[in-house]
Each structure stands twice: as C-alpha cells, then as structure tokens.
Design goal:
heterodimer; A: about 180 residues; mainly alpha; Rna Polymerase Sigma Factor, Chain: A; Arc Repressor Mutant, subunit A; 9 helices; about 75% helix; B: about 70 residues; about 70% helix
Chain lengths: ~180, ~70
C-alpha cells in the first residue's frame, strides 16, 4: 500500500519530463499526452517488474520510447506531417520572441533523423548520462555519442551557429576579450 | 588565473569520469545546449495535467477493487 503510494508519487514527479520527451518524439501535444497516458498504464501494469532502487525515470523513458516506435510501425509514416502539426501546436502560444525562438529550434530538430533527435534530447535536455541513454535506446554508448555529435553539427548548420562549445569556455572568453590564451 | 583553469579541468575530468554525465558540449556554455533546454523546459515546466492524476486514481482503484474481489 505504502509502496503503491510511493510509486505513484514518483510517477507523478516524472510526468513533466515524459511529456517533454514525448512532445519531442511525436511533434504534437495531443499525441504526446496520449503517449504519456499509454506509458503510465503500461508502467502501472508492470510495476512489479521494476526493481526499486534502480532508475525509474530511465525505465519510464524506455517504455514510452518503445510505445512510440510500436505505434509508428503500426501507423506507418503518416505521422510525419510535422509542419502542419507544429503550426497547430504553436497556435496556442502567445506570440512572443521566446516562442519564435522555440519554433525555429523545433524546425531544426525536425530536420534530424529520429535516432539523432532522441539522442540529443536524452543527453542535452532530459539529463541522462551516455550510458543511461544507450540503455534506453538499446544501443552502444559509442553510438549515442556519435548520434549526439552528428545532431549538434547539423543543428549548428541549420541555425547558423559557429564554433559552439567546441573550444571550451576559456578560449571562447579569450576570443571575446580579444586576447590569446596564455601559453 | 592559470590556477583557476587547472581547477576547472580537474572538475571536468571528475564529471566525465562519473558516467560521462552532463556532457560539456551541451552544457551552459553551448548555445545549442541552452536552446535545447529552453525548448524542452517549455513543456517540462508545465503543471501535470489533471487527466494523468485522474488516470492514476482510476488505476489505483481498479487494482484495489480487483484485489478485494479476490480476498
């Protein structure tokens, strides 16, 4: 009983992250929330297979990701109407500069292959380690690293960002103040 | 100045050793890293919709209902 309550409390605390991950996979809030709902139902059914003390967030992300790709296989690629979906999704937001930036970024993300996009999100936004992301995506750690790297390069090209984070904070600040790093 | 740089490098290698967590190239010094977080947090900062709380209530009740049937 108390275990159920604890499980429930932890599930709820992870829902915001699940929604953000689902939105990045599915493109629309409606589809994202349907995915989250399926994930919660499955997680509840399988909660006895979850080992307490292991990473519940990674476990839930794995379920959600599997559910997404299962649905994709069933439905074929009809889901890839990204422009239409995102136009709808953004219509609800007030027209602020911040949201225009998000829209630009979303468009760039949409140009990435699914495997690169999810790797970038898991590592750069959801806060997983390369090892955890590899487990979620059922691939090698090196594969995740190379997907993230390729995704960064592509996004930088698409958004016209140059030399982003490549040289580390020291050389960037020395470029800004116009002096070479001390030899 | 150079002392501080050494400290930073030590810190970074410790972080890298610890399961390669928080990769530097997508950290706060990266434009892409910051924009990625802003995009993600736009959704992740929203309150949990009621539909999910109601769903968990329903799942909980269905479960306790079926176990009391058995008992």
């Amino acid at each position: 009983m108390t275990q159920d309550l604890e499980f429930r409390r932890e599930l709820i605390s992870i829902i915001p992250n699940l929604r953000a991950f689902a939105a990045s996979l599915a493109g629309s809030f409606d589809r994202a929330d349907d995915l989250v709902q399926e994930t919660l139902v499955k997680a509840w059914d399988k909660q006895h297979t979850f080992q307490p003390g292991t990473n519940l967030k990674a476990w839930l992300f794995t379920i959600l990701r599997n559910e997404f790709y299962t649905q994709m296989r069933k439905k074929g690629r009809e889901v890839q109407d990204v422009d239409g979906i995102h136009a709808m999704q953004m219509a609800g937001h007030p027209e602020q500069q911040g949201h225009l930036d998000l829209q630009d970024f979303r468009k760039a993300l949409d140009q990435l292959p699914d495997d690169q996009r999810e790797a970038l999100i898991l590592i750069g936004a959801s806060g997983f380690s390369y090892e955890e992301a590899a487990e979620i995506c059922q691939c090698a750690v090196g594969t995740i690293k190379s997907r993230v790297s390729r995704a960064r390069t592509r996004i930088a090209d698409l958004l016209g960002i140059q030399g982003d984070g490549e040289y580390g904070p020291d050389s960037i600040s020395s470029q800004i103040i116009g002096v070479a790093p001390a030899a | 100045m150079s002392e501080r740089k050494t400290e930073d490098e030590t810190l970074q290698s410790t972080v890298a050793d610890h399961q390669s967590r928080q990769p530097q190239e997508l950290g706060p010094n990266s434009v892409i890293g910051r924009r990625l977080k802003a995009y993600y947090d736009d959704v992740a900062s929203e309150p949990v919709p009621d539909r999910f709380l109601l769903l968990l209530d329903a799942l909980d009740q269905a479960e306790s209902g079926s176990s009391s049937d058995r008992g």
